[in-house]
Amino acid sequence: MRNRLRVLRAEREWSQGELADRLGVSRQTINALETGKYDPSLDLAFKIARLFEMKIEEVFMPGEEE
Predict the structure, then answer these.
(1) What is the C-alpha to C-alpha distance for residues 51 and 37, in angstroms, rounded to an integer?
(2) Cβ distance 49 to 56 under 8 Å?
(3) How far apart are CA 39 and CA 41, in angstroms?
């Protein structure tokens, strides 16, 4: 699953650690999400979308990693 997490995080000038703290996950989880090695649970996907004030489908897109 592709996502815009890295871009959204960079726009806010948050480190992976800062984003992880805001979501209650590890920095390694954020890294895995950004590199496409991990797809979030539905609960985590909703948390991410709410944090960025977006719909889930605006953050995550189905398909292969580019």
Answers:
(1) 21
(2) yes
(3) 7
CB neighbourhood size of 60 (10 A): 19
Which domains, from first to last, does the chain contain?
Answer: 2-53 (1.10.260.40)
8 Å CB contact between 31 and 16: yes
Give the CA diameter of the chain. 28
Per residue in 11-41, is it b (16+ CB within 10 Å) or e — as a string?
Answer: eeebebeebbeebebeeebbeebbeeeeebe
- Reported confidence tier of residue 64, pLDDT bands at 50, 70, 90: low
Q: What is the pTM of this model?
A: 0.89
Q: Find the length of the chain.
A: 66
